[in-house]
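Researcher: Quick one. two chains, 713 residues in total.
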Amino acid sequence: MKAMKTFAVAALIASVAVPALAEQRTLVFNTDASDPAPKAAFEQLVADFEAAYPEIDVVVNTFDHEGYKTAIRNFLTADSPDLANWYAGNRMRPFVEVGQFIDVSDVWAENGLYESLGSALSSMTIDGKQWGVPYTYYQWGIYYNKDAYAKAGVDAASIKTWDDFISACEKFQAAGIDCLTTGSKALWPIAGIFDYLDLRTNGYDFHMQLTSGDIAWTDDRVKAVFAEWAKVLPYTTANHAAIDWQDAVSNIVQGSAANYVIGNFAVAAFKDGGLTNDNLGFMQFPEITPGLARAEEAPTDTIHIPAGAKNVEDAKLFLAFLASSEVQTKMNGTLGQLPINSGSSVGDDPYLAAGFEMLSTADGGIAQFFDRDAPAEMAKAGMEGFQEFMVKPERLDDILERLEKVRVRVYQ
Amino acid sequence: MSASTDSLNSRRRPRAFAPWLFLAPGMAMFLFYVIIPIFQSLWVSFYDWDGLSDAKWIGIANYLELLDDDAFYTSLKNNIIWLVLYMLSVPAGLMIALFLNQTVRGIRIYKSLFFFPFVISQVVVGLIFSWFYAPGFGLLYKLIELVTGQGVAILADENLVTYGIIAAGLWPQIAYCMILYLTGLNAVASDQIEAARLDGAKGWRMLWYVVIPQLRPATFIAIVVTVIGALRSFDLVSIMTSGGPFGSSRVLSYFMYEQALSEYGYRMGYGAAIAVVLFAIMIIFISGFIWKMWRDEKGVR
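Model:
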């Protein structure tokens, strides 16, 4: 196995690494910023960095957002860049555990990041060390079409609890509108629904124990989550399994559906489709168990230094630059997301302002997202189970037993 | 005299050596890219390995887990459905070939049109059919909606999805078989057709007793490529459904990819075990084909 890997590495190095030997201080940065807004934000970030450090040349390799998730494993072992995008929480754990990311605690200490990036500290820490620098996060919640609400005669402000939401769903159904839409073809959008249902039913600590494998999937408290989910299934877009998340966005835009549990990144898509601040609404996920400390979902995006980096020194300069409040303010202005740095400011975008308010007052905790909190295999099996449950709710017991089997194997 | 035998000998020796020289590059490639990886896969299938950390020897545990994995049986079942339905492309290809095998003005254009789906990438075929089936705006969806009043999202229905993908796969596969038969039809002896016609054979009898027997080499190749095409069906599944909904359109090759190489996978050992099983299934067919070819060649000599 080792020989196989070494051979692959040698072959790739021979073919790619030769130009990097030049005298110029170069930083190779692999990024998944292929969508328009992230792409613009990163181009700007790199330009600003090069302006601040004219002697350093940053070479950006942009990967397709989805393809990046598999590509990273190849380039980390074969032809390592100096910097790479990734995600916080359990999602970075496999790379940290095998030593593919380097410890950047010194960057945190020297630049006072424990203070300024404090809100993301726990999700960046494994074994008491920090393994990267977070630069953005965004809230998940319910985005809705105000025109659809008006048409069905529902007042969005009156929805406080899950029961309120379900009774609103009945009115939407009467008006011929899907109460809840989603596109589960790529599976992950529905994990957001599960996360919120679990966070609202059982709370943050339970959710974290479940995603770290300490609770059986056949537990009654897990079944309670699916019982809540079952209530909204009759009002959910029927063909969700055949459509992507962007298609569900068009359902909202066209008003054929009212609500969508999705991340703030979808706002750009909603607006491209023609919704404006006047008819696109945002609300936090309603309460299920009364009195539970409110937890929210806000996945954090990060940049790391791979172990194979050739220019670690300048890579650390880059991370320190990325962590500063002005850079994060500017970058997140373009991204349309929330900066991590507490000294940064949020633009006057109403959705960001609402998200910022919601996240900063969340006393329960901030979850990263199902496929970042749970290990990859559990996440995949879980999301497939969620999808099957949404289509065939009567199979719940079989599904949970299957997930339990996966849990026993994955976390052994 | 002796001089001429000498030169004959010296000429004969390089002649024995030359074929191997010409074969060497191909054989080296075959060794490095086919034979060695087969044994490596077999070897990896006995390990628990995520591709990054150290591999752990676990014996046949991967295979035991396969036996207890619902996803494996779903994939196996789907592979069998693929195998059976994909065979339709052989008679369908023959029909179209017979239909196109006439001298009409502009027949080449029709031939090219029928051959077109084989030329375009499978990815494009997958996308075309995804839109064809797409709920809300897809042509087939709209058509079903028009007829029955209720559209069917084929790719979201666990009972229909595999058939939907196979239908997409048949489109280029029929074209492939058609082109094999078209070339085969060129070689059909016209004197035998003529003789059969004098004896009063026509229609089905002509086809069955005179034409098809002469097309046996083409039929053989068509079946071989179709079996192999069905067993390695991957691109369409990946493009159209990613194995969904909830894994019901998985086939073994996609299941292997999912476990070993996809975003949520990286169980190299488990993926390799699936690959070995798939290879074992293929080897049954392949050895059958090789045995037949070997027998035929011996028969010729």
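Residues 13 and 153 of chain B are 68 Å apart (CA to CA).
Researcher: Thanks, that's what I needed.
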